[in-house]
């Protein structure tokens, strides 16, 4: 005979999940799906850069500009994200952003330089809005699970980047065109837009009204705002420089385009397990400083290896660089957990990502121009070793207290 308490527990377990729980799971799935798309267009373009250059016939200037455009778009479009989100709401703004991403990637199917650049600008502007708003949305929808959800969506981001790096060359080969190989990544972006359309704002809303807003530039006058922005900019500079140019560096040393894209995929895939370890360590304030030091030192060591002997141990350098790329989820967690309100989080996120990505744009541009001017990779990699050392110094200053 079943006891009364057991029967009650069984009935409770048998009940369908509440509407609130279902909405939470749907929102989490939508956040992860959007994050999966955040680097597909960037990584695929990096892996196909040499093929695009040959097929479309552009020179060093366009070759240097193409990996730079994402960071420039992130800086320009990110600065106006707060105002747009207050007008439309954070959830609708992200929907508009993912739709712009899908449209921009689709435009790149046209085999012309103007389409490549215009589609990149439109798509990366959509990514900029998502970059700024995802930390705020995580804080608003999942206030008790910030680190967990941040880890999930940065993992999805890393998986998407690794998948696009590895698959871009064979997919373009199967389609018979590097332009079509870029445009095919509009399909998962369209799926993400459809799923995101069902996300509804929490109560209270994710982005507060005009009376409760905070200027990002007010955050720039604080120690936290200045150091977070500097660290974000340096890690993004290093990340976009290596993501945009690593396949070209390796193929210039005799490695095939497919194998070079595979090495980039390894660097990005390493971030999946390492990011969880990094975020777990970062939950303990006593270990935060050591965690910042570890990821920055890994990036510094990986860049040093690529400077000295790029094709001697490419997978070792890829693993080190991949561990260094985990500085991104680390600083995102700091942003998402900072401030006493969603308005302060949005201000810090807007400041760090708009000003930070403006600094980051110098990385791939300088690498491209230096490579074009010198005809080699020694000078560009020496500069990146210096910026990795600067990232380490800023991280130590940020975590000193």
Keywords:
single chain; 401 residues; Growth Hormone, Chain: A; 21 helices; globular; transmembrane transporter activity; transmembrane helix; MFS
Q: Which bin fits the share of residues in helices?
A: over 70%
**CATH fold annotation:** Growth Hormone, Chain: A
Q: How many beta-strand segments?
A: 0
Low-confidence stretches: 5-16, 206-212
Distinct helical segment count: 21
State the secondary-structure class.
Answer: mainly alpha
Largest sheet: none
User: What is the correct CATH architecture?
Assistant: Up-down Bundle
Explain what this protein looks like in three dimensions.
With 401 residues, the protein is an all-alpha fold. It has a single domain (26-197, 215-398), classed as Growth Hormone, Chain: A (Up-down Bundle), CATH 1.20.1250. The protein is 80% helix and 0% strand. The chain has helices at residues 4-14, 19-36, 40-47, 49-56, 60-65, 69-79, 81-88, 90-107, 113-141, 146-175, 178-183, 186-196, 216-219, 223-252, 257-282, 285-308, 314-324, 327-336, 342-360, 362-374, 378-398. Helix 6 runs antiparallel to helix 19. It is globular, with a radius of gyration of 21 Å. Mean pLDDT is 83; it is low at 5-16 and 206-212.
